[in-house]
């Protein structure tokens, strides 16, 4: 049947509202899905080059590229983990070596007189017990939140790894199913 313009307008606005609602509901998945399409699009020429030059089937070419990509990502994560762990160990060693020198350093700083321009500063006149108690009271809330901070960092790291695995998996299957035909990259057939 022929629709008049008001029916078309209502139907069009309803369709736009449904699309916007679906996009809002699935906005969490939209970024990784777009990343998967971009990754598949970028790797497509490399896989085509390998297929033509080495004369191997398309899926094997795609699989080799993704295996190399996963090994590179795992290598970088391992390297970064070792670097962070080593820095943590160095910090602990530094603190262990210098913790016994802290009272001498504080005594040395407080016993000297400092002159900055026309001003003379003598830290010996300060009430160091009150300053220390203020510093401790300022640091205690931060130390109490370290556990929740570490938990949120760990949760964020697991989330990044999970989304990376999802993006790699989706882009792999997108690319493997194209069989080397570029127009099939965005061809979606729902059974």
Offer a few descriptive terms.
6 helices, two-stranded antiparallel ribbon, mainly alpha, elongated, 191 residues
Describe the structure.
This protein is mostly helical and 191 residues long. It has 6 helices and 2 strands. It has helices spanning 5-25, 27-54, 58-98, 102-111, 128-144, 146-177, and strands at residues 114-116, 119-121. It has a two-stranded antiparallel sheet. A hairpin with a 2-residue loop joins β1 and β2 (119-121). α2 packs across α3 and α2 (27-54) crosses α6. It is elongated. 6% of the residues are buried. The model has no long low-confidence stretch (mean pLDDT 83).
Strand order of the largest sheet: 1-2
**Gross geometry:** elongated
What does the average pLDDT come to?
Answer: 83
DSSP summary, beta strand count: 2
Helices and strands in order:
Blueprint: H1 5-25, H2 27-54, H3 58-98, H4 102-111, E1 114-116, E2 119-121, H5 128-144, H6 146-177
Antiparallel strand pairs: 1-2
Helix pairs in contact: 2-3, 2-6, 3-6
Brief write-up:
With 191 residues, the chain is mostly helical. The chain has helices at 5-25, 27-54, 58-98, 102-111, 128-144, 146-177, and strands at residues 114-116, 119-121.
